[in-house]
């Protein structure tokens, strides 16, 4: 069970895949978004998190794919698909369809595939997408997107979330490519905030973390070095935000073919402020960092080497918010502010430090209050 989705914003496609694999005989492995012990909860699920692996891939500079389904089927397909694609320096749509059509479908009977291909034209590029089998996918125009294609147990939730335009903002992004990337990032930040606070997506056996592939104007590439900070807060009866503080930092970076996914859970913090910034700091005893090594399906050798020091400073930071409402619901807006608005510094075996511009806090507090009160009025 999974989520694979492709969104198209102003004809710019973005491919998204989650990283969790679930199985009836799962071993209750740790979950990056859980703040406490959820073993008893996981025991009640018919499918349990078993392992983490990548589900979206850049095959050639102009070709990216995503897969969902049975691990063995996907692994075998990926190996053969890579090999077939190596024979073609100039990948055409006809060649792509030939490779897919020639594959033994009985070996892929419990899995799904989406492939996105960019072709050069006299006017720039033309994008073509194929997905298989068609009945497994939702397609349509949702929210700000020209088109959304999604499959897996998270497909309905994903398509619904894309329609919630008022709960995230993409202001400050001047070009369509940046707007496409940021809008998808904010949707994922909302899912991560909801999962941290309610385990919502785990109930449908998807989530825990995501990869994103986008076309940068020349080639496909994976989004690297992205950090999510998930804040907890609550609304009072008048819609004012109270007790805002960070609970979870999720940082992803690629090392060779591996996705290194850090989950930093903040259990206590010190708060400092000056006229411009508010800073939350958690020392070594006040946070827990779990590293998840997420390999591609066709990694042949055992993972034996990762960087010795996983410290980082992040300025590419998305913020998700899990805000408790007066009726004990959860409101989960998200933003992607500018580079100087929020900075995350992590020193391995030392401390995590989150510095956020106070002006940004004031703005989002006003915006969230308005959105929350409007949602109450609409109901």
CATH superfamily of the largest domain: Aminohydrolase, N-terminal nucleophile (Ntn) domain
Report the mean per-residue pLDDT as an integer.
Answer: 91
- Return the CATH topology of the largest domain: Glutamine Phosphoribosylpyrophosphate, subunit 1, domain 1
CA-CA gap between termini = 33 Å
Provide the helix percentage.
Answer: 10-25%
- The number of distinct β-strands equals 24
InterPro entries: Ntn_hydrolases_N (IPR029055)
Give me the secondary-structure topology.
Layout: E1 4-9, E2 12-18, E3 20-23, H1 39-43, E4 48-52, E5 56-60, E6 63-68, H2 71-86, H3 93-102, E7 112-121, E8 124-132, E9 138-140, E10 147-151, H4 155-161, H5 176-198, E11 210-215, E12 220-222, E13 227-235, E14 241-255, E15 258-266, E16 270-273, E17 277-282, E18 287-294, E19 312-314, E20 317-324, E21 330-331, E22 334-335, E23 342-347, E24 351-357, H6 358-378
Parallel strand pairs: 13-20
Antiparallel strand pairs: 1-2, 1-10, 2-11, 3-4, 5-6, 6-7, 7-8, 9-10, 11-12, 13-14, 14-15, 15-18, 16-17, 17-24, 19-23, 20-21, 20-22, 23-24
Name some characteristics of this structure.
2 domains; 24 strands; six-stranded antiparallel β-sheet; Ntn_hydrolases_N; Glutamine Phosphoribosylpyrophosphate, subunit 1, domain 1; alpha+beta; seven-stranded mixed β-sheet; 379 residues
